[in-house]
Design goal:
This protein is of the alpha/beta class. It is built from 10 helices and 10 strands. It is globular, with a radius of gyration of 20 Å.
Length: about 270
């Protein structure tokens, strides 16, 4: 019989997860952590939380599996349409104007916390439509969930998952198959999917646009500050940051400037 997490067990796992990923569990969402740790114990055929804690503390691969299991992955195609209206009508035109000054013909975009791939595939389809002749784009999509990345790389989505995709995009960039839609290779080839923990430096440089939406809400203030500063260091001058509509950098000591467009509010690196 699986032993229930007591307060000491809960604190051990909560601290371990925070130290490894920056993800914060509070008393209000303790039940989520409890249930997912207990499920891991069942899968590993381990009787006590402390026994599993000893395993995961020493095994990097098991650590990845645990972090995968405790994350929440909610996403959809064209999520928060005003963000994509801003991306199409404001951000990319301004990025292109800056590119003209430097001669750099590559637009670099990062979808951080990409989940099962709907966001980066949306970005890729949009870029296929609006990227000017003579320019190209590179998209990096990362997540801490290996399971989600496998789904994203496969690029197959059930019928129920393609709601919100404009009909012309669905026809142009997907192939209808039994039970769903397969994204076409021309879109898949524009995205590099990568396992990445936002607590660590990505190594990325000169990014023009970063999407990190509905991820910061899982971090406490200190971890948010570290993640946002790493974005700043990875981004090019005159670049743009999209965060979730319920997220904000207000009150945070950051160099990003708040930018209100006709469609949505985002942040800009001016330097």
């Amino acid at each position: 019989m699986i032993e229930v997490l007591n307060n000491d067990d809960y604190e051990l796992f909560r601290k371990l997860i925070y130290d490894e990923s920056g993800i914060t569990f509070s008393d209000t969402n303790r039940s989520i952590l409890d249930s997912r740790i207990k499920e891991l114990l069942r899968k590993k055929n381990v009787a006590t939380p402390k026994e599993y804690y000893a395993i995961v503390s020493k095994d990097p691969e098991e650590m990845k599996l645990m972090l995968d299991s405790v994350t929440t992955n909610l996403t959809r195609f064209f999520r928060n349409q005003p963000h994509f209206d801003t991306f199409i009508n404001y951000v990319i035109p301004h990025v292109i104007e800056e590119k003209k000054k430097t001669g750099d013909r590559t637009i670099r975009i990062w979808s951080a916390g990409c989940s099962t791939g709907e966001e980066p595939y949306t970005i890729a389809m949009v870029m296929k439509e609006i990227c000017p002749l003579g320019y190209n784009f590179k998209i990096t999509a990362s997540d801490i969930s290996l399971k989600c990345l496998m789904t994203a790389k496969q690029g197959f989505y059930a019928d129920s998952k393609v709601d919100g995709i404009p009909a012309e995009y669905l026809t142009k960039y997907f192939t209808k198959t039994d039970g769903g839609y397969q994204i076409k290779k021309e879109i898949q080839d524009t995205i590099h999917f990568d396992y990445h923990n936002l607590k660590n430096d990505s190594g990325a440089k000169n990014l023009d646009v970063v999407f990190c939406r509905n991820v910061l809400i899982y971090f406490d203030e200190a971890a948010q500050y570290e993640v946002v500063n790493r974005f700043w260091n990875a981004m090019a001058p005159k670049s743009y940051l999209f965060i979730g509509h319920s997220e904000s950098l207000f009150g945070m000591k950051t160099n990003f400037e708040f930018l209100k467009t006709d469609w949505a509010c985002i942040y800009q690196k001016q330097l």
